[in-house]
Amino acid sequence: MITISASDVGARVTTRRRVPGGFRDTVGTLESWEGGVLCVRRRDGTLVEIPEETLVAGKVVPAAPPRRERK
To answer: In the chain, which end has fewer C-beta atoms inside a 10 angstrom radius, N or C?
Structure first.
């Protein structure tokens, strides 16, 4: 089920898309959705471009919890 749209730019989202041999999930901030391509910035800073025709699921998710310090 896809419940995200271009109006969710700036929100944290999770997506699932078809790739050869299966599926791939991405969680991050939806930076743009233009020309049929979603751009999602992952926590590590990488930008993932997702052609919307490969999208099989997507939704807005809560902000990531703060990282805990290791002792």
So the answer is: C
Phi and psi torsions of 34, nearest 5°: -135, 145
Q: Which residue has the tokens 């901030």?
A: 29
| Contact assessment for residue 29 and residue 11, using Cβ atoms and an 8 Å cutoff | yes
3-state secondary structure of 60: strand
33-62 per-position pLDDT tens digit: 999 999 999 999 999 999 999 999 999 999
**DSSP readout, 31-49?**
EEEETTEEEEE-TTS-EEE
Contact 36, 20 (CB under 8 A): no
Chain centroid to Cα 27, Å, comes to 4
Instruction: Output DSSP code: residue 36.
Output: T
Q: What is the pLDDT of residue 63?
A: 87
